[in-house]
Amino acid sequence: MRAWRKLAPGAGAFLVEDFMPVPLEGELRLAVEAVGICGTDLHIVDWHGGYEGMVRALPVTLGHEIAARVLAGDGLPPGTRVVVRPSVTCDGACGEGGADHEDCCSRRTGLGIYRDGGFAREMTAPFRNCLRVPESTPSHHAALAEPLTVAHEAVRNAAFKPGDDALVLGPGPIGLGAALFARDAGAHVTIVGRDDAARLAIAGRLGFGRCIDTGKRTLAEALAAEQAPVRFSAIIEATGAPPVLAAALPLLAQRGRLVIAGIHPKPVEIDVTRLVREQQSLIGSYRALVATWPVVLDWITRNPDLVEGLISARLPLARITEGFDLMRRRAVAKVIVEPEAGQDG
Question: Which of 110, 195, 264, 266 is deepest in the core (most CB within 10 A)?
Answer without folding.
Answer: 110
